[in-house]
Write a structure and sequence with these properties.
By secondary structure, this protein is mostly beta strands. The protein has a domain at 28-79 and 93-128: Immunoglobulin-like, CATH 2.60.40.790. Helices cover 4% and strands 39% of the residues. The protein is built from one helix and seven strands. The strands form two sheets. Strands 1-2-7-6 form a four-stranded antiparallel beta sheet, with no helix packed on it. Strands 3-4-5 form a three-stranded antiparallel beta sheet, with no helix packed on it. The N and C termini lie far apart (103 Å).
Length: 140
Amino acid sequence: MTRVQVYDPFAASGIDDLFRGFFAPVRRDSDTPVSIKVDVTENDKGYVVHAEVPGVKKDDIHVTIEGNQVSISAEVKRETEKKEGDRVLRSERYCGSSYRSFVLPSDIDEAASEAKYDNGVLELKLAKKAAVTGRKLAIS
């Protein structure tokens, strides 16, 4: 009686070592930027955007609006106070800038929009620009 064996061409080679950890969760290094996570809701007057920007001062956040495109940028600064005799064993805090841009379905009225920053969450209340209606021309 002959025995049936399953042939696995990758068993003897180091292919499994190549893909080991490929599907493991990604770990954030201290040099990778903090991503700005955004929730956008719409109502009849405009849009409400909640953006998570943790560890950033209010003065270091910049919001620009061009038509229907909204851009949020933030600069994270690491302020450390070194004392004599202290040495850093591990530092995982990020220092650098983050940027996020997205397009909304209709144009934004910058003058009627407002922004508020509290506890690491930036809240934007973006008013929709009034739609320009066409004008009927009288033919003479």
